What does this fold into?
Amino acid sequence: MEINFSDPKYYTNRELSWVLFDHRVLNEARDKNIPLFERLKFLSITASNLDEFFMIRVASLKDMENAGYTKKDIAGMTPTEQLKALHVAIHELVDLQYSTYNRSLLPLLEKNGLHIIREHEQLTAEEAVYVDQYFQENVYPVLTPMAVDSSRPFPLIRNKTLNIGALISKKNREEEKDKKGKNDKNDKNSKTEESELLFATVQVPSVLPRVVQIPSKKDGDTTVILLEEIIERNIEKLFLSYDVVCAHPYRIMRNADLTIDEDEAEDLLVEIQRQLKKRQWGEVIRLEVEDKADERLLKILKMEFDIKDADIFAINGPLDLTMLMKVYGAEGFDKYKTSRYQPAPVPEFQNEKDIFQVIREGDVFLHHPYMSFDPVVNFVRQAAKDPDVLAIKQTLYRVSGNSPIIAALAQAAENGKQVSVLVELKARFDEENNIQWAKKLEKSGCHVIYGLMGLKTHSKITLVVRKEDEGIKRYVHLGTGNYNDATAKLYTDMGLLTCNEAIGEDATAVFNMISGYSEPKQWNKLSLAPYWLRDRFLYLIRREAMYAKEGRKAFITAKMNSLCDKEIIAALYEASSAGVEINLIVRGICCLKTGIPGISENIHVRSIVGTFLEHSRIFYFGNGGNEEVYMASADWMPRNLDKRVEILFPVEDERLKTEVINILNIQLADTLKAHILVGDQYEKVDKRGKELLSSQMYFCELAKDRKKKKNESKERLFVSREMKE
It folds into this structure.
């Protein structure tokens, strides 16, 4: 009987798989072996992840539902079915978030000298005086209270802002009621009383610190209170003619998924700028409110935001746990944090040689953040200054706020070099930042391409064209991560610096294709999406299946961020059933199920969640004994393979191949930070009888050792020279 490898029962829904990923991040916050403040950071990350998930993924599903879209996903679920399942899964996740905060982290913080005032009612008399003075001097002048009545409509509430909603009533209302013979003062839910209540709201200003330090009772301790609690305590000062019946914080999430009709857009830059303004006012898809909120207040919010019960989250704790990153930054608690890792120098560049000379001597492998990102920055900087450099071409997806690469490109243009830069305007949540950089580059004289119609350019490639004695020589940097010097210290990525002639030719073809739609008849080393990268991956996977059937060496080891492409997964199932041993390291979404008899018995999936965000993409194939190693900017996702410009590039230098393979093997041996996929659920590695190994910490130590050995060799060289003299 022929197996249908595309049967939906063999696949996990993409969105539910993402929720499992956020659970793995949350597990780090719950891990007692991790320093206390690092646990706070992980809890903050889960909240940030969830915000983005709602604004994009949940929003997209709601759009589909509203449009009557009923097509089923990879796991056979309609948008409506997915939303129902997500409602259960996300509520469970949020409950666990706040259970972790309230039951685990708060008591530990308290025990170790950091006191978070949960409610303003808990303030001592002395603390209350300080808080009230702080409100009067620092907060009150900034606030804009807004009442709602017949002449003042409900205000537009911005996306992700924290607000305090209040029910207010005219002073002396009870006396007036008595005069009219309405004596039932205790019936808070009476229609008469409700009709006399007004709704008012005030935004918690984002321009002020949300975490406010106040004097502590005990020397050496730190006491903080949240800004919304300070405002809530003093809210009556905003409505002097009214009694405040109740006041509760709330927060909304809006649909932030940009809908751009690129075919109709005459100017992509203008259209994106227009759509960005809409992001703040999209459909409300989530309402967070204090769990003890007055039902009458909640009823008003529900009506005004037109939101379903399933999308309302009653929160037992502070709304928006991303504020914990501010708590993490509190001074005096370094012993509860992991010491910040300082990236080690790249051994090949620990000398006085010119960067181009080093690359001519052999390909250079970069492994961030364990190795410094400086060589990538210096590659562009030196090219900008070098009189022999004729042209620099680069793709930019996400860059830092004060990018040295942008500055170097601008300088290069000012120095008269030909500079071409593709700035991807559709990089989600970095659109405004990228627009600013693009305009700056244009003013400097760079030729700027504002992305491509219908595609995102997600590839990471830099080409430097240099005039040398032998003629024109091309130097290329290819990477798995963004040209962002800030995230390069937080994300694990890989890169290759090379002057390989074939890769140089392909790099030129890439930029010619991007800028002028000129595609060469053939390519040498690089494989590109959306053109033939999908076919290339399918060929490589199926080749392993063929070799397995022939009894030759066949295996696949691959590392990526997400795996949700149905065609790729079906090919992996087919390879597994043919006997190919498949080891996958997938950080986030994984729609593949392991351990299905006859289908995925030979597939093993692990996810590593640690101090750094795993971001590199590596693909390693047995190839009948002639092993091949590739790196890429692409995951195994439909968007990467069909809707983005991505690059797969080979690692051919035997020394570098060995290094990349070793990295994969170390990650496969991780016992401390790895979760194993069993069916469609994840379990921590069983450590019994195994060496305790964190792959990330291993690479940190390895990079430090290389630096140390390099320095020692320099010292030996210095001593030997002295002896000769």
Summary: Residues 123-180+189-316 form a domain with the polyphosphate kinase like fold (CATH 3.30.1840.10). The radius of gyration is 29 Å. Residues 79-111 form the longest helix (33 residues).
